[in-house]
Amino acid sequence: MTRVPYNDLPDDLPVKNNLVKVAYANPEMFRGFASLSGRVHSASHLPDRTRELVIMRVTGMLDAEYEWRAHARIAARNGVTDADLEALRSGDDDHFEGAERAAIVFTGAFERREVDDAAWNAARAFYSEVELLDMCVLAGFYGLASRFTLAVDLEPDADF
Question: Most exposed: 3, 106, 108, 115, by fewest CB within 10 Å?
Answer without folding.
Answer: 3
